[in-house]
What we know:
By secondary structure, this protein is α+β, with helices and mostly antiparallel strands. The protein contains 1 helix and 14 strands; from the N terminus they run αββββββββββββββ. It has a 5-stranded antiparallel beta sheet, with no helix packed on it. Strands 6-7-14-9-12 form a 5-stranded antiparallel beta sheet, with no helix packed on it. A 4-stranded antiparallel beta sheet has the order 1-2-3-4.
Amino acid sequence: MTQHSRGFTIVELLIVIVVIAILAAITIVAYNGIQNQARATVLQSDVSNGVKKIEAARAVSANATYPMTLSEAGFQGSTNTTLTYQPNGNTFCLVATNGTQTYSASSQSPSPSEGVCSNYNYALNGSVEDSATSWFSSTGAGVERSNVRASHGSYSMRGYVAGSGTDRYIFMNAPVSGAGPWVVSADVYLTGTGAIDYNRGLWFQDNPTTIGTNTNYNLSVVNQWQQVTRTVSSGASTTSVNIRFYVMNGQNIYVDNLRVERAS
Length: 264
């Protein structure tokens, strides 16, 4: 008597294929999770070790300021970790990235946390307490550090018309990274009212895509401090932002406590 072996039916084969696909998907998800956790551990370690090196370099510096580069601090991250270090006199921000994962720490928040630095001021010397470093003026405008008045500390930056021109302002370039959004704020003191080029106040412009936005001063508030604030986005490839304060004909403007922070 001839015997015939029974093969798998199409339904049974489909069930086997589906089970294999499900097991493969579970394996891939589990593997990716293990990889992500491993990368996160490395990034946190890099940030923690970097903060220790940065603080140690500051402790032995002559003027008690943070090193300008990670090389000066004697630190480099692990393989595949991209480090972004932004010192700002007495503050700093350290960001470690691998693929889509990012961890950071700052002088204000030294413990590694997921994401970029929060509550960190990217404006270099925004309070001008130590010097006028990082502040400049355009053609036809003048800028100087002044102790006549200040909203924070003892000094502010005085801006004034110093000659003819059509685009006169004082400014600072703040090193940032990415699209933000950014919260830009400053205290401004107007000694009176007068003509302003392009009728501008606080002007924000990013580099290299040069997206410009304006926030006017409150011209009805004179001889007292007013806060000028704007939340703006920039191009994804942004490496710095240009913060301008337009000056007035026949009047002084004083700027203090400039802050450029990443919106939370």
